[in-house]
Structures are given as structure tokens and as C-alpha cells.
Write a structure and sequence with these properties.
Length: 401
Amino acid sequence: MKIVLVHRHGPGQFVHLACHLADAGWQVSFLCEAMNVRLPGIRTLRQPVTAPPPAIPFAQYHQDVGLKAARTLESLVREEGAPDIVYGHIGWGSMMFARDVLPKTPLIGYCEHYYHATGRDVGFDPDDEITLAKRAQLRVRNAAQLTTLDQLDAAISPTKWQKSAFPAAYHHKIGVCHDGIDTHRCQPNPNASLTLPDGRVLTARDQVITYVARDLEPYRGFPTFIRAAAKLAQQNPDAQFVIAGGDGVSYGQARKDGRTWRDVMMAETQIDPSRIHFLGQIPHDQLIRMYQISSLHVYLTYPFVLSWSVLEAMACGAPVIASDTGPCHDMIRDRQNGFLTDFWDSDALAMKMAFCLTHRDDLTPLRERARKTILNHFDLRRCLDRQTTLIENLASGRKSR
């Protein structure tokens, strides 16, 4: 069987699935502008890079991305025939013209995020001004997804909340299945340790508050976290704060003054720099050790896509304090397998952080329920089995026609 996975920057959410299918004997190809990691036995079909907005309008950008992806698929078909199935992210336009190249090939879409002008990430900040231009931009960004959804045989969204953003008319096409968390690799380890840049070694016996984001920015609640950390640091001289993430902007917009949010928040809060440890973007094995030694893990997010980090922290048995926002409701039950807190309220977050440190020994049942939640609903093996079943059924249906 031959599958083409489509993602602007591979492998993205398909990393586990690609390896799983390749191990099962599938011929796996990635159609992408750039491949961020090398995966053994998996080939890359590179399409030309399209300059992202604002260099060109979104409608033109999505069309250009889609046409380049379609031409790459067309070349593949000429050289070796059509693949048995194509599974691709629909967010950048890459799948817009796949049906025009492959009229009989089953197509699956990955539905990550559908934009809304209210009720989700846009407008969540009370200071946001939602102009007509902004609303129009969001509608145009969604147009590429709607054009693609019309052509798909099936689609997958990683969580119920993320699926709910898409128009109800397409819900019959969209199943819910997460990419999967490797619960064998992400598991509790009472003997874990983490070496900090200054050489100090932290273990589960220390009071360690962890925070992880791709980049330290408002979309993932970094300002609220630092304000709460500064308040807790004044009350608790033993608490150590360990932070992983870069100083760029993954979501939202960069500051107009050019400063990083780390610099801004350190200056605002005046937190003792010896108490807070910035690790930058670190290898996955170090992230896991962070979760394993964590006395509590803080995860804050706008109503936006759910991060793998919070699920991995739960799988490692870390008590999680998460924002009381839509993405977190799919896995956190307040005071059952974690804690929910107001995204903007740094005082409330500081109080809950203090509670977790004071009652560390009482949180064992909560830690166990957190890991059980991941095992039951987000375990990699279960997720791969569900995805593979869908892919095999669609591909077999094509073979039988």
C-alpha cells in the first residue's frame, strides 16, 4: 500500500503514524515544503516554498500552496501511478486541489483549527479589536479548509473541542482521534533528575514548578504564569521554576517594541532570576524528565489547539493546573485529575500553585487519575490503531472498486 502524507512542515502531527505505517510495510511519502526531521524508510516529496502572508493575501497564498502541492502530486502520478490514499493537513491549502489530481483516490483531511471571530482565540484578549478586515481575513483563511472539506472522503480532528469549531454540516465527515501520546516513554519515574544550565540537579524531592510552550507568549499564558510565579516565589523560598520554550512567536503577533515576552515579564515582576530557569527549546527526553520531577505543571492556553505537552505531563503523573478554557475541558476534570484556573487571574493561579506544593503527598490519587486519563483516551497505540483502521478501510475500498 502507498500513502502520501501532506503537511507544510513535515512530519508535524503525522510523525508517529508515518513510522507506524512504514514499519507495517507501507510505502510512506511526505509531501511538504520542508522536512524538520529525518524518518528512516520514509521519502520526502518536496514542493516549492510559498512566501507566507503578509507578503501576499491569504487567498492567493492558499491557492499558491495548493497548486504547488497538486503539481507535485501530479508528477508523482505520472512517474509511478496514484497512491492508495492521501492524508493531509487542510489548514494551509495544501489539499485544495488534491481531488483534481486524484479523482478516485481516497482523501483524508487533518482538521486542526477552524477560525472564528468570536468565542475562540480571536477576541479572547479583552483588548483585542476585531475589525472588519480581521473578520474578512479569518473568513478567507477558512475558505481553503471548506473547499478542501467538500472533496474529502473523511477527516480527523484531534479533540472534540477542536472538531466542534468546524461547521456542523461537515461533522459527519470528521472523526475524533488524537495523534497519540507515547505512554511507555512518558511515564512516572521517581528516580528521574534534571540538570540545569548552571549545573544544579533537580529531582522529584525538590519543589519544582514546570511550564512548557513552543514559544513564551500570551497565547499560552506566559505573562499570567510569570506573574503567579513571582507571587509564589515571595511566599515560598524553596520553589524553583523550570521553563522550556523559545523566545519567538508561534501564535499571535510579535510585540511592536521588538522585545521578547521573557524580557518584558522578568522586568515587570522583578522575580529573582536565580529561582527561575529558562531552558529554551530542549530535546524531548529532557522534557520528559521535566515532567517526571515536576511537583506541578502549569498549562495555560487561549481557546486554541491543544498542546501535546500537557498530555505528556499528565502521562508522567505530574499534577496539572490548566486554564479553564475549551481545549482543556477535553481531558481535565477539576480536582479529579487536575485543576482548572482562570486564564487571566494570576492571584488564583498562585494560590493553586501554593496549594499543590503544600499538599504534595495528598495528590497521589490525582496523579494516578491523570495518567489513567491519558492511557484511556490518548494512548499512542490506541490512537494509531484507530487511524490505521480508517486508512486501511478507505484504501481497501478503493482497491475493491
